[in-house]
Amino acid sequence: MATLHERQRYRRQILQALYTAAEGNRLLGVAGAALNHDLRIPEQDLAAACSYLAGEGLVTVDWEPGNTPAMVSLTHQGIRVMEAEEEEGG
After folding, report:
1. How far apart are CA 42 and CA 57, in angstroms?
2. Which of 44, 55, 61, 74 could connect to 78 by a Cys-Cys bridge, CB 3.0–4.6 Å?
3. Angle at 26 between CA 83 and CA 21, to 5 degrees
4. CATH number for the domain including 22?
């Protein structure tokens, strides 16, 4: 089971990976398998992080059987959050 710090880091990594891949286009998503491979997040933790982010309205998730994310995309709100953070940081 991931610690609070790890869960927060996983969520941040997912949002950043989606934002980078989508380049601000919420119609583009990333396959859950690609997130799992690229970010090296354990499957159970990836599913939990995606579920959390979806609950916050930041991503949409198409689920495969067994609660595995098939495709994950940023929502409009998710893009706004990431753009606001990019403006603050740069």
Report:
1. 22
2. 74
3. 75
4. 1.10.10.10
